[in-house]
TrEMBL record:
<protein>
    <recommendedName>
        <fullName>Transmembrane protein</fullName>
    </recommendedName>
</protein>
<feature type="transmembrane region" description="Helical">
    <location>
        <begin position="105"/>
        <end position="126"/>
    </location>
</feature>
<feature type="transmembrane region" description="Helical">
    <location>
        <begin position="81"/>
        <end position="99"/>
    </location>
</feature>
<keyword id="KW-0472">Membrane</keyword>
<feature type="transmembrane region" description="Helical">
    <location>
        <begin position="7"/>
        <end position="28"/>
    </location>
</feature>
<feature type="transmembrane region" description="Helical">
    <location>
        <begin position="40"/>
        <end position="60"/>
    </location>
</feature>
<feature type="transmembrane region" description="Helical">
    <location>
        <begin position="138"/>
        <end position="162"/>
    </location>
</feature>
<dbReference type="InterPro" id="IPR003810">
    <property type="entry name" value="Mntp/YtaF"/>
</dbReference>
<feature type="transmembrane region" description="Helical">
    <location>
        <begin position="182"/>
        <end position="200"/>
    </location>
</feature>
<keyword id="KW-0812">Transmembrane</keyword>
<keyword id="KW-1133">Transmembrane helix</keyword>
<keyword id="KW-1003">Cell membrane</keyword>
<dbReference type="Pfam" id="PF02659">
    <property type="entry name" value="Mntp"/>
</dbReference>
Amino acid sequence: MNFLLRIAAYIFHPLFMPLLGVGTYFVVTPRYTEPQFMMAKMYAVIIITIFIPLVSYFLLRSLGIVKSIHLSDIAERKYPLMAQCLLILLLMKMVFKPYDDPELYYFFVGILFTTMTALILVFFSFKISLHQMAIAGVTMFIIGLSIHFQINLIYTMAFFFFVNGLVATSRLHTKSHTYPELIGGFFIGVIPQLILFSYWL
């Protein structure tokens, strides 16, 4: 159990959640997408939301700005969250368009607002759970897809709710976060996605 809880923090790391949301969208959408077009989008998400942040992390670590990828210290979160905001804006500008990909475009608008909220809280010395924030946002997006396309995703949603609980338990087990930090992360992840439903549902 200890191993499962610890590995969950790596499998469901915030860096992988945008890719998980986009991948789930392409799997469940009834809208036909050219395979080459789909793969191009997926590669862009991998490069911009995973590869570049990882390279940036090693750069920040070599400069002594961050100590670990978990960003346990509140002060360490400032520059990675700023960089994440810029990368999400780049993704929205270059990859996803509001008229071509409204679901994914507003998914990333939600991620942008969520990340900005987390960044603002850093300046008030409040550390929220980025893990919980990320998986909660993806979960709300999946619920939106089920409503939008009128398809039964009950098992997918059940899986994501289970993962939310697993991530929360993992963060508590490793003493990485407190209950308020987890609850704050959950709502900061969910609320922007929920508000943006009105733009694409």
